[in-house]
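Two proteins follow. First one:
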Amino acid sequence: MFDVIIVGAGTAGLSAGIYTARSGKSALILESKAYGGQIINTPEIENYPGIKNISGFEFATGLYEQAVGLGAEVRYEKVISIEDEGEIKVVNTAENSYECRAVIIATGAKNRQLGIPREEDLIGSGISYCATCDGAFYRNKAVAVAGGGNTAIEDALFLSNYCSKVYVVHRRDAFRADLKDVEQLKSRENVEFVLNANVVAVLGEDKVEGIEVKDKNSGELRQIPVAGLFIAVGQEPDNQAFSNLVALDSTGYVVAKEDCLTNVKGIYTAGDCRTKSVRQLTTAAADGAVAALAACERIM
């Protein structure tokens, strides 16, 4: 029997473990892969308040060591379901079943990939899914953004402030993004739109040196020299295992506001897996603290 079981050992989950342990409650963190979540692949973090510069691995390791040092326990088991038995919750993994008084779902969200060759290999070496995290590293360099939604257009606007050239590659000739943002982007002299096209390959061996795009109508291939490729084609939450218990929105995110409460008493959510407009390290850590303190207060 644990006081709180936390599903996921990313920034939100580890932060929840820290606050649970500091509240004098027992915490079990269940993680299917490795601690840290997506941030562990980021070579440098410069936007976390109070830390001037740190690698994603160092940041995640610091969180992990802090949580474990305070008494939180981490086990590497994939959670396959949660059962609500009133005051007691049962968390089932592929190997075991655990009882607890409160659950925090902090499974995060994974970036949807383009599916091009060597995409995963070059993450952190020219391929990024977060312009606000990594954009400053490409100051005065040419980059490309793949996508046509709000995130892609916002990323391109952000990058155009730093980069010498920004290519926006979109598979259609119209955008799903807000019109005012698209018009603002069109007014930037250092932005070029590559429409009705898909990124089909990355050029370069150990780092990105360019991209190859294919015109959907003509089939023509074009090589564009860039130092970075920012992929903004959406995210995919991993919450289907809980869909029979907690409310999910149409895209699979756990429905919760800033209080991190789900529709089920005693079950909370934190981080990128919940419905929210801003997904950053700071908001993930804040969610972890909010969810943990709410869970501990309920237990007491």
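Second one, unrelated to the first:
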Amino acid sequence: MTDLGKVDGAFFDEYIYPHLGADREDVTLGPQHGVDFGVVSVGGEAVVLASDPLSLTPALGFEKAAWFAVHVALSDAAVSGVPPSHLAVTFTLPPEMTDEEFRTVWSTFDREARDLGVSIVTGHTARYGGCRYPWVGGATALAVGDPEDVVRPDGASPGDHLLVTKGPGVEVAGFLVTLFEDAVELPPETIAAAKERFWDMSPVRDALTAAAAGPVTAMHDATEGGLQGALVELAHAGGVQLDVDSEAVPVLPGVAASCDFFGVDPWAATSEGTLVLTVESGGADDVLAALDDEGIPAAEIGAVREGEGVYVDGERVEAPDVDPSWAVFEEYAEKVGLE
């Protein structure tokens, strides 16, 4: 197991994958390393399920922290292409959280869920000794819809076009610069641009817009391991080769300077909000146009080929061993006295 972050494929295969409870015929997509969601067939409909830990970082302000938390909770279900419909939330809160702080968090959850058509159906809320920020619980999102609408993570095929939204490093700029602004030595206009990336840290509308616009064959969000990790996982899931043109990959304002300041490779660092997707031949223009209409930056960055693995400008790349943003977070949290 890695010291920080998600377990790797070897750990998953040895410790988790052989032990998945009862075999049931209604499970049409079960757990796989690097795959965002599972699917159960119920009454002729597909029920997509995805679970994630829940984090709140008070230094962001509770409204921003809650906005990020609820979008993270919904993102893995959204990359199925089926709109999230239901949410279960568990809060295991530190004793020092006040009722008013929780009111802000919950009203934000309610507002964002209503906006996305999501009903919160169950959960658990309590304060417990020993609990501390940022990890304060977990959430499970469901998306219920037509099985034909599910975009499977293993659906990429040779001949498909490879697209990305927003590009790498979005979370380094949007989250880390916002959180550690007082310790960031960059020009004010660069800091302002980086902080704007905070509101790009959700792939939910990216995924739903793309799936509605064209024949999308696979989607994956670029969280731990960043864009590079997401590309490798998407290629592995589909048993295909991805050829990537690095010059075609968009980089949003504030990202490059932020990554340089923190000393991280933007392609390897977690980038919540960045979506990697493959589209059938002939459908890429429709998907890109739909994303543009929603104000979501996106570009075609390569192609799906016969073979296996990811090649960037002709060179084979692998998933990062460790996401560099974890070390940056720990270093700067200590510098600014963030608890």
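SUMMARY FIELD: The chain has two domains: 9-149, 161-336. Residues 62-78 form the longest helix (17 residues).
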